[in-house]
């Protein structure tokens, strides 16, 4: 029997995973740019959360601790690929952000996390979170084709 089954009711574990699995996977996929790696990291994040948390919330925002475990599992962070100045997709642009910007950009703009939750998940100071977000937004704007929003 697994550690998760010993601490948490299996229905709780299933509800928790169904609720947050897609969000954690998207965070990892956008951060890594690879589906298989994202699946592996997502699994690691959930297992670590099950081991360390006594509660499995299924309401509210995505648990910052869960995103934090995913972020930790993706360290050391690899720099994104260097592409052309006119990327065709938003995902390509996100991958070109530095690791700090990328994590904050995805957490804020894709997952809709609040500033304190992002700071907790990334272990960055609150002012650093906002700086990373702003610099990431400006960089994505610079990388996207000028007609991106007119398509």
TL;DR?
The chain contains eight helices and no strands. It is an all-alpha fold.
Poorly predicted ranges:
1-6
* CATH structural class: Mainly Alpha
Helix/strand-derived category reads mainly alpha
Which superfamily, in CATH terms, is the homologous superfamily?
PhyR, sigma-like (SL) domain
- In terms of DSSP E residues, the strand content is under 5%
State mean pLDDT (0 to 100 scale): 89
The Cα radius of gyration reads 16 Å
Q: What's the count of strands?
A: 0
Gap from first CA to last CA? 52 Å
The CATH topology label is Butyryl-CoA Dehydrogenase, subunit A, domain 3
Work out the helix count: 8
Question: Percentage of helical residues?
Answer: 55-70%
Largest sheet: none
Quaternary assembly: single chain
**Under the CATH scheme, which architecture would be assigned?**
Up-down Bundle
Total tally of structural domains = 1
Q: Which H/E pattern describes the elements?
A: HHHHHHHH
Characteristics of this structure?
151 residues; mainly alpha; Butyryl-CoA Dehydrogenase, subunit A, domain 3; globular
